[in-house]
Design goal:
heterodimer, A: mainly alpha, globular, B: four-stranded antiparallel beta sheet, about 30% helix
């Protein structure tokens, strides 16, 4: 039975481990999967360290859609260089010479922009500097390399992996001790962990020198291990993880993942030893927490949970309790540890211990994904301790609370918008009751608490958000291109006031239609809830109308035109380059629209999967609750039989013994004062010394 | 003589047979724990293999019958989750063109940004200031004309003035948009979403400071739960000023 739990642990915890990559990403968060999404190695074009910013490989994405992703490190810098030449010919290029001091000043501003979230601006500024002929004399200087690094890193954080790799790879031609070399490696590893194709970045890093510092090689080894695990090569992964030294920021992750592999192979002893290395401060190398940062301590909590599960798997229930106990009180994993402690104690038939853990979990007063299971376990502990009325009460309360939640989960699976709202609310930790789902607040919150969002959903949502962000920026870029073209044609031209009203574009209108439809769906759900499942002709006809509206809304979105402008003659001069880019922008916008449909479908599929899994879980627990209620009836009957049998043998049952003793009925937090006569002198002021 | 020897040998033979029977006793005793183990530890999936004698050669009856294979599945606790309740561990890989497309768009946007920096002398700077001690920003985006130019990171706060966008733009009319979702720190249920659009005119070769003040003096989160009477008081102000 615990194999299942171990599998879940591997899956869920693996996801959290990957969160610890010091990017805001949840990259590489997936559990290693045998083959499904393992990209075949793509030897492709090797990175060309030291090469200029021009193209290194030709993109080959659409040649075969079913094939491997295109392995390109093209920075797309050639077009910018062509712009620089064209601007220079028209005497429009910047003429002020670059200097190290100016680069230093610019870098200060750019770093500030990056740190305050103005990444797109920073990228524009950096491209302006790096893709200028004036930059060439400085490209090998410390400042120049810093510019290239920040450009590559910013592009990578914005999911533009191909140009990011192109820029960062340029920095790998220096000595391994160079700070920008090291930072480039770190950045490439972070990007790889975040991306869906980490093998491509691993290819960029294959020339990392053996003489590179420990922390750099540790990064590469960790990535190698993750890639191998992703491809189902557990032995290779173990070898790679073993090479991650204590000076690497990934030491804890690598050791923990090695432990997971050992546990998956049923080598519990080895797995336990590896988990202990992370979990036990005495066994942890002294430098590992220093290099690991805050992520280290998250992984340590996971290792302690892992140890608990391994002990549980081997029926060492006391050991399991000890390991769970080590999870600190400020840990996010504490509810999980307490729930599992309770399960362990229950299985060890230590029902009081199980009850204590559940009480502690309740005292935390935090929403957790085990709320429903805690309910059932609580009732089953009562059953095991023959407290049949209490068990019956709890099971009944569970049925009342979670039956509507299960029904709501089922209904949501047919409404994409509401489903996405709920899963997004869970992912972003906002209140599901305010997501406009059309259910009661309690039901919405219960749904939000119980949905276990898979790490891959986070990645899919991020993909969509990044695509939307880029599309929005592209719309603005198209407007800018039109303005520049007009400005070149007539230098006196100013941007006119829009003929449309504010927020009256086609895009705005379609978004308003979508939100109105979402609101209609919510109202319908509320009406359905109010009708208590009774069939209503009005409701059915409204539903049909809504379906027709949805089809029209989808058609309206699909028919949204890309902002198209008159495209001039293409060529090598500035107007020609602008015309080419304007045309390219329209094409990219259309491609993005098409791609968006696919990405959104993936996101919805994952959201639906989360709700379907919740439905299955709640159905199982509801079945279990109903069976539990039968057990309580049987238990009550059996206890009566025992009582009667005891009475027939002249033994008084426990319920009768001392039944007149009032103290017997007091709770733990109550005190019994026996009757001491009518006059209690200490009960009124001034009567203390009266006789 | 032969009869006497026969009479002497018979008890000896009998004795040796009895001793053989006695020798077989431990074998039976060794079986007992195996029979008890499943009853005593009903939740364990399998008995310890060490309990089975490794050498059965001394016994004509051979080893004990093999234990019926008690699989773990057969003894699952009903409180344990089923396999289909877990994600399959896989991830949906993005469409093949995704990386290329994003790379192309990002590169094009950066090029356009660089070109506009060179060709436009006018600039717009958007500065944001948030006021309201109990208001927290859940989502905040700044748009300029058709596109988003700033998306706030998590836990965005701008109690002091904070520049969120500064870039060269074409002189003339532009639309600055502010989309903000806020919630009350005292009670997260009370949320607001506001979308505002401001038309600004950027003069030729000048920088315009668009100072956005986002104020929230709502008391819904505090008052409404207690006395069913509260108020949302939200303001978004923009002051545009040409820098001298």
């Amino acid at each position: 039975m615990l194999t299942l739990r171990a599998a879940f642990a591997a899956c869920a915890l693996g996801a959290i481990v990957s969160l610890s990559a010091p990017v805001r990403a949840q990259g590489g968060a997936d559990k290693p999967k045998a083959t499904a999404d393992a990209a075949p190695p793509t030897p492709g074009a090797p990175p060309t360290p030291g090469a200029g910013a021009s193209a290194t490989t030709a993109p080959a994405a659409s040649a075969n859609p079913a094939a491997a992703p295109s392995d390109s490190t093209d920075t797309r810098g050639a077009t910018m260089r062509a712009y620089q030449v064209a601007l220079d010919k028209q005497k429009l290029a910047a003429t002020a010479p670059l200097s190290l001091q100016r680069l230093r000043d610019d870098l200060g501003t750019i770093e500030e922009k990056i740190s305050s979230g103005r990444r797109d601006e920073a990228i524009g500024d950096l491209v302006y500097i790096v893709e200028s002929p004036r930059f060439d004399p400085f490209k090998d200087s410390d400042e120049g390399r810093a510019c290239v690094y920040w450009l590559g890193d910013s592009l990578g954080r914005g999911s533009a992996y191909q140009p990011a790799r192109g820029y960062l790879s340029q920095l790998l031609s220096a000595a391994p001790t160079d700070i920008w070399y090291r930072r480039a490696v770190h950045s490439l590893v972070d990007i790889a962990l975040e991306s869906d194709e980490p093998r491509l970045m691993l290819g960029d890093l294959k020339n990392v020198d053996a003489a590179a510092p420990d922390e750099v090689r540790g990064d590469v080894s960790y990535l190698t291990g993750r890639v191998a695990e992703r491809e189902g090569k557990a032995d290779d992964a173990l070898d790679a993880y073993a090479k991650v030294s204590e000076k690497s920021r990934f030491w804890a992750q690598a050791t923990y993942l090695s432990g997971l592999i050992a546990v998956e192979r049923k080598d519990y002893k080895k797995g336990e030893a590896l988990f202990c290395k992370v979990a036990d401060p005495k066994q942890t190398p002294k430098k590992a927490p220093l290099f690991g940062g805050t992520d280290f301590f998250q992984v340590r909590d996971l290792a302690r949970l892992g140890l608990g599960r391994v002990a549980h798997e081997q029926y060492r229930f006391d050991d399991a309790r000890y390991y769970y106990y080590l999870v600190p009180h400020d840990s996010d994993d504490l509810p999980e540890a307490l729930y599992e402690t309770a399960t362990t104690r229950y299985e060890a038939k230590d029902y009081e211990g199980a009850r204590e853990s559940l009480d502690e979990l309740k005292r935390l007063k935090v929403d957790n994904a085990y709320e429903d299971e805690t309910y059932i376990l609580d009732a089953y502990i009562d059953l095991a301790t023959c407290r049949f009325p209490a068990a019956d009460q709890k099971l009944n309360a569970f049925l009342l609370r979670y039956d509507p939640v299960r029904d709501a989960a089922r209904r949501l699976t047919t409404d994409d918008t509401a489903m996405k709202k709920l899963v997004d609310a869970v992912r972003t930790s906002s209140d599901p009751a305010s997501a406009g789902l059309g259910f009661s607040e309690d039901t919405a919150r219960a749904l939000g608490a119980l949905v276990r969002v898979d790490a891959s959903y986070g990645r899919a949502a991020r993909r969509l958000a990044e695509l939307d962000h880029q599309q929005s920026g592209l719309r603005r870029a198209m407007g800018d291109l039109d303005q520049v073209t007009e400005r070149l044609a007539s230098s006196k031209t100013v941007r006119p006031q829009s003929e449309q009203g504010l927020a009256e574009s086609d895009q705005d209108k379609v978004e308003r239609i979508d939100s109105q439809i979402a609101e209609l769906k919510r109202l319908l759900r509320e009406a359905e809830r109010a009708s208590n499942g009774k069939q209503s002709g009005d409701l059915d006809s409204l539903k049909k109308e809504l379906e027709a509206l949805q089809i029209r809304a989808r058609a309206a979105r699909a028919a949204l035109p890309a902002p198209i402008a008159k495209v001039g003659q293409k060529g090598e001069d500035l107007p020609g380059l602008l015309a080419a880019d304007r045309e390219r922008a329209s094409a990219l916008y259309n491609d993005a629209q098409k791609l968006r449909v696919q990405v959104e479908a993936q996101e919805l599929a994952l959201a639906k999967d989360a709700l379907i899994r919740l439905d299955r879980r709640l159905s199982r627990l509801l079945r279990r609750a109903r069976l539990g209620r039968i057990e309580t009836v049987l238990g009550k009957k059996r206890s009566l039989e025992v009582e009667v049998e005891a009475l027939s043998q002249g033994l008084l049952p426990q319920t009768i013994v001392d039944s007149l003793d009032a103290a017997r009925y007091l709770g733990d937090d109550e005190e019994y004062w026996p009757f001491e006569g009518e006059d209690w002198s200490d009960e009124y002021v001034g009567g203390e010394n009266l006789k | 003589m032969r009869i006497r020897y026969a009479l002497f040998a018979a008890p000896l033979l009998l004795l040796s047979l009895v001793s053989l029977v006695a020798l077989a006793q431990p074998r039976r005793a060794a079986k007992e724990p195996e029979e008890r183990a499943p009853a005593g530890k009903s939740d364990k999936p399998e008995a310890k293999p060490e309990a089975v004698p490794s050498n059965g050669s001394s016994d004509d009856l051979g080893g004990p019958p093999p234990k019926p294979a008690a699989t773990a599945e057969a003894k699952l606790s009903p409180l344990n989750p089923e396999a289909n309740e877990f994600p399959d561990g896989g991830s949906q890989t993005p469409p093949v063109e995704y990386d290329k497309l994003l790379g192309d768009i990002a590169a094009l946007r950066s090029r356009v940004s660089a070109v506009t920096t060179t060709l436009f002398a006018s600039k717009v700077r958007v500065v944001v200031e948030t006021r309201g001690s109990d208001a927290r920003v859940a989502n905040f985006t700044v748009t300029l004309d058709d596109g988003v130019v700033f998306t706030a990171p998590d836990r965005f706060i701008a109690e002091d003035e904070r520049t969120v966008y500064e870039h060269a733009v074409a002189p003339g009319h532009h639309v600055v948009g502010i989309d903000i979702e806020r919630f009350d720190a005292r009670n997260k249920e009370y949320r607001t979403w506001q979308s505002s659009r401001f038309s600004v005119v950027i003069p030729e070769s000048k920088t315009v400071d668009a100072h956005v003040i986002i104020q929230d003096s709502s008391d819904m989160g505090k008052d409404f739960p207690s006395d069913q009477d509260g108020e949302y008081d939200l303001r978004v102000r923009l002051r545009a000023r040409v820098q001298k």
